[in-house]
């Protein structure tokens, strides 16, 4: 097909001119406005603007039918919809700032690289359009070892993919390589997958093994750093951490680095958290969360470089009196404005409060060596395997945190149970600033129906709980996941756990809050954990959390009472709909209403319900039921009892 040298593309107001030029060494790299990847070869560009498109991106179809979203066609947009705060690809979860294929009915979005990974059934073969090749690749069930993979340059014996027009073959694992990765050996920038060495190289050597790169290469155009795909996919040992919420990868290469926990240089085999890009010594990986040190009345708690200490906070170590750098971690007692270096705290410790979590999560089937995402897991809370689901099809609550599921989650194929991926990673034991004893994660509180009172946000909750059996102290996992330092988007400074009289969000007094040492600002647990967006059954649009508003007087459209504009509230961006946080979230946001249980005082199963005025009389008191209650699920049975009477019976 003859190529158009001039193209009027719908995404740009000026004509685009075709260029065969390849990027020379030293020339500034330009990103494609469609897929946001570097333009290294033939492309279309505008002479008047900094606008450029890969040839393949310039010729994308304006509408496609995609197997990841079979219900409706996807329309190509030059920018994400204007109503989005942020557009995420529903396949890879990456941010979409360039072209995006969008479903006008379901708000389903997929970026260009993922859309080009388009499988379609063709007879007995599976064809796949791949970003690395201009033709469709056909699945071949058996290759006899006579061809080499163009990705890794190794012989293919067994299943693979090939081009019916060219001598182009790939292993399945090479076909599915991510077009962009972040790698521990080059933390500064992402690495981009190239099918050949960069055009400005005469030869290309892997910066890890120093061998010549023969096939695909992961490349950083900014630093000219390269990894062949074998080194990029090397298996790495995954280990637990004492004072970090994610697992660490043990790097099998001596590196010169500064430890992000203690700030001291190292030259051995470091440990890396790929999610936070934190690199630490082996010994710093085992630092406890809380330490008691000599000559200080309170335990000190570990803070990481991710939990920045305030500018106004004392920056001198309470032991050696040298400066504690805000670039690295340390230990602090923020009630006393007392901080120390990590090494000083350990050297002067008198006892250590152990909080190391138990192993809770066994990988059954990995998605890929480089991705390290488990498709099937075994969790301590459930007897069956849990399978990952990439897309949410209807409204579901996580059985751990009782929040709506809006992202990939895990579920049981045999039971009705749903868990966020992040909830699977919660530690089994932890120390919390609200309580002096270690807390244990329970999948269900031992009380009737698993309902418990959270000592952090003072809400009645279902779901998992961090519990101290000795003291009858309980926290839901939302409150239990909070640490000594909180960074909230409503305030510019970090908030530290303290005793303060009044919450700035709701105006109510509370015994324990997070406060700012620089400002007269504090948040209680309930307000600190308010979701940014909620859906209410009486309003068609989502409601956004609003921190304050310059208005004389506004009213809640749910309870019709006045809203103080100086306090937090929810509002609809589309129409003038306002709601108090309690009204928007509901009276019992963390209780699974409708869930049934056997009840020893009644022959039939009962369910948790929320009753308002004018309901049937309580079978215990005879008064009309109001608030939380248990109701018989059997038709024609009028048994109902208010929760306060059930609670008294089970004390």
TrEMBL record:
Signal peptide: none annotated. Residues 132-182 form the Phorbol-ester/DAG-type domain. It holds the Pfam family C1_2. SUPFAM superfamilies: Cysteine-rich domain. The keyword Metal-binding applies. Keywords: Metal-binding, Repeat, Zinc, Zinc-finger. GO terms for molecular function: zinc ion binding. It comes from the Eukaryota. InterPro entries: C1-like_sf (IPR046349), DC1 (IPR004146), PKC_DAG/PE (IPR002219), Vacuole_Formation_Reg (IPR053192), Znf_PHD (IPR001965). Gene3D superfamilies: 3.30.60.20. The keyword Cell membrane does not apply. This is Putative Adipose-regulatory protein.
């Amino acid at each position: 097909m003859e190529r158009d040298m001039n193209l009027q593309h719908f995404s740009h107001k000026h004509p685009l001119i075709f260029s065969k030029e390849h990027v020379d060494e030293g020339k500034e790299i330009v990103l494609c406005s469609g897929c946001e990847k570097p333009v290294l070869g033939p492309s279309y560009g505008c002479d008047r603007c900094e606008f450029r498109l890969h040839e393949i991106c310039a010729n994308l179809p304006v509408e496609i039918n995609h197997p990841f979203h079979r219900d409706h066609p996807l329309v190509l947009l030059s920018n994400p919809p204007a109503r989005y705060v942020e557009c995420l690809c529903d396949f890879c979860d990456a941010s979409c700032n360039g072209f995006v294929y969008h479903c006008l009915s379901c708000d389903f979005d997929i970026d260009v690289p993922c859309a080009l990974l388009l499988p379609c059934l063709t007879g007995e073969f599976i064809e796949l359009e791949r970003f690395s090749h201009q033709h469709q690749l056909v699945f071949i069930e058996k290759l006899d070892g006579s061809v080499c993979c163009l990705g890794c340059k190794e012989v293919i014996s067994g299943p693979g993919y090939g081009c019916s027009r060219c001598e182009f073959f790939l292993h399945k694992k090479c076909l599915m390589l991510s077009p962009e990765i972040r790698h521990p050996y080059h933390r500064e920038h992402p690495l981009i997958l190239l099918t050949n060495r960069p055009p400005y190289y005469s030869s290309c050597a892997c910066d890890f093994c120093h061998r010549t790169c023969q096939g695909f290469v992961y490349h950083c155009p900014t630093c000219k750093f390269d990894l062949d795909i074998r080194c990029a996919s090397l298996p790495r040992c995954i280990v637990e951490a004492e004072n970090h919420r994610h697992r660490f990868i043990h790097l099998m290469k001596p590196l010169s680095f500064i430890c992000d926990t203690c700030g001291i240089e190292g030259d051995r085999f470091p440990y890396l958290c790929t999610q936070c890009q934190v690199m630490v010594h082996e010994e710093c990986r085992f630092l406890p969360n809380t330490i008691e040190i000599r000559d200080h009345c309170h335990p000190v708690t570990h803070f990481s470089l991710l939990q920045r200490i305030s500018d106004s906070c004392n920056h001198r170590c309470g032991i050696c009196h040298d400066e504690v750098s805000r670039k690295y971690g340390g230990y602090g007692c923020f009630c006393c404005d007392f901080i120390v270096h990590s090494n000083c705290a350990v050297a002067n410790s008198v006892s250590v409060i152990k909080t190391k979590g138990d192993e809770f999560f066994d990988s059954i089937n990995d998605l890929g060596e480089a991705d390290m995402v488990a498709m099937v897991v075994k969790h301590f809370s459930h007897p069956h395997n849990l399978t990952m689901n990439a897309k949410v099809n209807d409204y579901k609550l996580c059985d751990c945190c009782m929040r709506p599921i809006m992202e990939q989650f895990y579920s049981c194929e045999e039971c009705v149970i749903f868990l966020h991926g992040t909830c699977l990673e919660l530690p089994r034991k932890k120390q919390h600033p609200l309580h002096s004893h270690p807390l244990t994660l329970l999948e269900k509180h031992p009380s009737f129906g698993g309902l418990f009172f959270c000592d952090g946000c003072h809400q009645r909750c279902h779901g998992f709980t961090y519990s101290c059996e000795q003291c009858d102290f309980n926290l839901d996992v939302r409150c239990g996941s909070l640490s000594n330092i909180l960074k909230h988007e409503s305030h510019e400074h970090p908030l530290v756990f303290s005793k303060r009289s009044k919450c700035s969000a709701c105006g109510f007094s509370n015994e324990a809050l997070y406060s700012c040492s620089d400002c007269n600002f504090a948040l209680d647990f309930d307000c600190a954990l308010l979701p940014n967006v909620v859906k209410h059954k009486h309003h068609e649009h989502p409601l956004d959390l609003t921190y304050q508003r310059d208005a004389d007087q506004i009213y809640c459209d749910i309870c019709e009472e006045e809203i103080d504009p100086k306090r937090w509230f929810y509002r609809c961006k589309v129409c003038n709909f306002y709601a108090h946080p309690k009204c928007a979230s509901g009276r019992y946001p963390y209780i699974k209403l409708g869930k049934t249980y056997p009840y020893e005082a009644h022959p039939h199963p009962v369910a948790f319900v929320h009753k308002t005025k004018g309901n049937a009389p309580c079978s215990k008191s005879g008064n009309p039921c109001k608030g939380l209650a248990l109701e018989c699920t059997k038709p024609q049975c009028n048994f109902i009892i208010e929760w306060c009477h059930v609670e008294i019976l089970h004390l």
